[in-house]
Amino acid sequence: MIMQDVQNYYQLLCVKEDAAPQEIKTAFRKLAQVYHPDKNKNSPESASYFKVLLNAYSVLSDRKRRKQYDLFLRARRGLDKQPEKSTTAAAPKRENTIQTVCNQLNMFLWDIEDFLRTFDPVLLFKEYSGVPLWIYIEKLLKYLDKWVFDPGQFEEHVFSVNSRSKVAFLNYFYSIRVRVDKYFKELTFDDLVSIVPGYNIMKIDVLFEVFKHTTYYLTNVKLLLSGEISHIPDYTYQEPLTIE
Questions:
Q1: Burial class (CB in 10 A: 0-12, 13-18, 19+), 205
Q2: Cα dihedral angle (224, 225, 226, 230), rounded to 10 degrees?
Q3: Which residues have a Cβ under 8 Å from the Cβ of 235 and sit 6 or more positions away?
Q4: What is the pLDDT of residues 82-91, one digit of tens each?
């Protein structure tokens, strides 16, 4: 997968990574004055791109989630071999929204792959406060698998292996990645803003929750392995989403 015009949440809001909370709030408000749907005749393009900006702000304005996101950025620094850069927000066009969402999902996929390829497989069965590590990795992959694609078609036995192993997790991840590539090629703007069948929420919102869930577990698994924490509490939602 080739990722161009990489944009992390700081770049999306046009602030530095050491920006103070008030700077982030001010930057978001300035962007909202330009890209809010009310300022753009309530066009679907502006509504979707505003959601992109709002998601970035919701993470960076929350102290705990910003800390997790910062850890994620530091952990993956250098993987894309591109220097840190500042950007200006893109115009609220359909292709910009799709490209930004795909770029961000790619960032998470690359970091998951890097982690799975390099971690010690013996640690899979090590227990932390009575919970084996593989449980958290499985939560991460299954959630990604279920909500990036069609939750109505998801089957719990899609990852059914008799013994948990590094190879099994890598194979499962690569099957997800192949399907993500196909998903990207077929993804349309209408798909992104469509309502997920059986749930009163748009696909783009579901993807943002996937990003937060992935950041949470991936970062905390690394902290667990480094000994900085002893257990990982279940992920909790800030938004009133009806997804589990």
A1: buried
A2: 30
A3: 139, 212, 213, 216, 217
A4: 434 445 555 6
Residue 20 φ/ψ, nearest 5 degrees: -70, 155
The count of residues in the chain is: 244
Two tokens, residue 78 = 């250098």
Output the six-digit token pair for 43: 């066009």
- Closest C-alpha to 69, from 219, 206, 208, 209: 219
Please, is 99 exposed, middle or buried when counting C-beta atoms within 10 Å of its C-beta (0-12, 13-18, 19+)?
middle
Q: Tell me the per-residue pLDDT of 157-192, one tens digit each, with 9 for 90 and over.
A: 555 555 688 988 999 899 999 999 998 889 999 999
How many domains does the chain divide into?
1
By the 8 A CB rule, do 109 and 177 touch?
Answer: yes
- 239's tokens: 């938004």
Contacts of 112 (CB under 8 A, 6+ apart): 140, 141, 144, 173, 214, 218
DSSP codes of every residue in 180-224: HHHHHHH--HHHHTSBPTTSSSBHHHHHHHHHHHHHHHHHHHHHH
For residue range 95-130, list pLDDT tens digits in order: 888 888 898 898 899 889 999 999 899 999 999 999
Under DSSP, is residue 147 helix (H, G, I), strand (E, B) or coil?
helix
Asked if the structure places residue 238 within a domain, the reply is: no
DSSP for 134-145, written as a single string: HHHHHHHHHHHH
Please indicate, yes or no, if residue 105 is contained in any of the structural domains: yes
The answer as to whether 78 is a domain residue is yes
Residue 97: inside a domain: yes
pTM (2 decimals)? 0.84
Range of the domain at 38: 9-226
